[in-house]
Amino acid sequence: MPEVALITGSSRGIGLEIAKYLAKTGYQVVLNGRSTIEEEVLSEFDEMPESVAQVTGDVSDFDEAKEVIDQVIEEFGKIDVLINNAGINRDGLIMRMKEEDFDSVVATNLKGTFNMCRHITQPMLKQRSGTIINMSSVVGLIGNAGQTNYAASKAGIIGLTKSLARELASRHITVNAIAPGYIETEMTDALSDKVKKTMLGQIPLKRFGQAEEVAQTVDFLINNQYMTGQVIEVNGGLSM
User: Fold this and answer.
1) Residue numbers annotated as active site
2) Is the pTM higher than 0.85?
3) In angstroms, rounded to a whole number, what is the distance separating the alpha carbons of residues 135 and 147?
4) Which residues face 81 on adjacent strands?
5) How many other C-beta atoms are found inside a 10 Å radius of the C-beta of residue 213?
6) Could you report the per-residue pLDDT of 122-141, keeping only the tens digit for each?
C-alpha cells in the first residue's frame, strides 16, 4: 500500500506543485481546499502512479479540520505525511489594518496549522511514525513592512513546529518547517514589473524561486528521518 500524503491548501500554487511532485514518486495524494477541487486540476494527476483523492474542509475551523483528518483515515487507513500549506494574506500597514484582516490571517495560517497538527497527533502516535511539514515563510524570519499579520502567523508556525517536534520525537514522528521566499505563483505573476524588479534586487540569487524547488525540499524532509524541529529556508539567500 502506498504512503498517504495529505496537503492542505493544494488546489493551486505551491500546494498543488507539492502534490504533483509526491504523486509522481508514488504517493497516494489527498488534495484539500475550502471548496471542491476543479476537474481541470484533478486531470493533471491522470498519468500518475496512484489515483488522487480530495477532501473539502476549512482548516481554520477546529471541527472541520478534524473531519478532514477523519475522512482521509477512514478511506485510506492512515496518514503518513501531513503538509500544512493552507494560507492566506491580507496585506496592509498596521495603522490601517482592520482587526478582521489580522484575525483571518492568523486563523487560517497559524490556527489552521494548529488544528491539523492537533488532530493528526493521536493517529500518528498510534502508528508510531509520521512526517509533519509546516509551511512558514521568509517573512516569519525577517519580517516585512505591510505584512505584520502574515509575518506574525508564519513566525508562530516556527515556534509551533519546534515545540511539537520535541513532543513527538520519541515516537519517531518528525516535525519540520519550510520558509519559502518569493516563489513564482499566480500571486507573483500579478505583480507589476516595478514591484518585481524591487523584489529581485533583494534576492542574492537574482531570481524568483520555483514551486518545484519547494516540493523538492518537502521530499528531502520526508526522506531524511534524522531531521526534526528544523526550519529549511528556500529563498535564494534573501534572509542571509
Assistant:
1) 150
2) yes
3) 16
4) 5, 131
5) 15
6) 999 999 999 999 999 999 99
